[in-house]
Specification:
1 helix; 10 strands; about 35% strand; about 160 residues; five-stranded antiparallel sheet; five-stranded mixed sheet; alpha+beta; Immunoglobulin-like
Amino acid sequence: MNMKGKRGISEIITTVLMILLVLAAIAIIWVVLSNFLKSGTGEIEGATDCLTSQLIIMDAWTWSDVNGTRNLTVVKVERPQGTRSLDNILFYVGGILYNASSKSDTGPIKGSLRAGEYKEYNVFTPNDSPSTGKPIEVAAVFGEKECPKSDPLTIRFTS
């Protein structure tokens, strides 16, 4: 028998096994990286929306209704830029989240503020928690992502 032929077969089997191992490793790395990249691009997209759609509080004032039962805070908000429609705008008075509605639209806040526009919003705070002198902040919302809050502005009183 010729021993040289058997060595050649072993080398071929070794080479095939090494190629299969390399292909398996590439497949595993591809699955891990593709999942990582898919989740990462969603976060980048949300972050990009927030960077290009920062909201600015132009003015904020408060007054009590005729019955004195509640305080109404009016906030004038500007959106200098951004292309994606807002899903919501959150209003924080003294760090506490309050409900709000648009003064000019009867519908929800969703999509109500486009790039280059400003609008006034009514923020309803309880009478036992006057908002005059407190800081107010706003935050844009895209999907489930809440963007960073705006720079605070102190609410003034008007009669």
